[in-house]
Amino acid sequence: MVHIATYWAPVAANDRFGGVPFLAPVPIVCRWQEVALIFRDSEMREVSSNAIVYSSLLVEVKGYLVNGISADADPRNVEGAFEIRRIDLSPTLKQDRTLIKVWV
Fold this sequence. Notes:
It is built from no helices and 7 strands. By secondary structure, it is an all-beta fold. It has a 7-stranded antiparallel β-sheet, with no helix packed on it.
């Protein structure tokens, strides 16, 4: 099943108050699966996940995703928006594309 999600990319630099500002929201095509999983992040900490998203766009850790369309500039104000915690990249069987699996 195909979904439309909204992605907010993080800006590399923090704002003057220690927060991470975000670029404008971008709609992406994806497959959103609501699942509760526990995994280890890059620092080997146990982290819980609310969903697995198969994305058509390469996204960044610390960015945000929400299932649906949103025009809000700050994803932290959007109900149901989740921080991206992990990204796995895998070649497809034909190796002509890369599967982007996002843990939120």
